[in-house]
Amino acid sequence: MLVFLNGQFLPEAQAVVPVNDRGFLLGDGLFETMRVVGGKPFRFAQHLERMTRGADFLKIKLPFKPKELEKFARRLIEENNLSDSILRVTLTRGPGERGYAFSGKCKPTLVMTLHPAASPENPVEWNLVTSSFRIAAADPLSSFKTTSKILHVMARAEAKEKGADEALLVNTNGEVAETTSGNLFWVYDEKICTVPTGRGVLPGITRAVVLEICQSLELPVNKCVIKPEQLRNAAGIFVTQSALGIVPVAAFDGMPVAPSPLVDQLAAAYQEMLVRESA
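The structure assignment produced for this chain is given below.
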């Protein structure tokens, strides 16, 4: 497998970063994960726009322009012959001196890797459980996909120990926020509901796509704040994320969740959009 590292295409085993890279030492960086269909990264511009905003916030200079990165991504996909895959773009502040403080002399590290996509012939449903870990309700960093994900790692491990697939993260106000790997939606009173941003929620790209689809299908949307126990009244629950798209939740905190025709409708529309935009 070839990877892209700072302007070079290298075999995976040869693509190494220094031990003093701040991404390795401190999680000082950002990443984006996107679906590749028909050789094209889905919504690449939106992902790079979010990474650019995050880099500006963190004061990391992107070493390549978005158009250059898209060209490099297309070549990486072709070289690896992975037209149906998952693309990850990782940006770190790069090597630096010991300590938290940084200077403008850091040379950023940028890596792109490809990973096989899940087979569409094996649809995924998740067993979701509420995590004991809490995320900050008003953290400005939640707007960006930072590489500092230890809380999410531990919440997912906790879910696995309970025999579940994914963990629901609640914020420090006790409100539903997101899952470890995606945004949460639920169906209530024939409306598609989701958590508003600004409460520890990452504004996901697939989340935005689903909201687009709801508008095109004239499905009513309600962005609202709820407690975890209120989810038990939902007529359907699903998670959105770039790698898998729309993932229905089959069980929540040990209780079965009934399948929803609205979730099926959204999932079908999302798959149609993937194919249409990759043509």
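Interim note for the steering committee: The chain has a mean pLDDT of 95. The chain has six helices and 15 strands.
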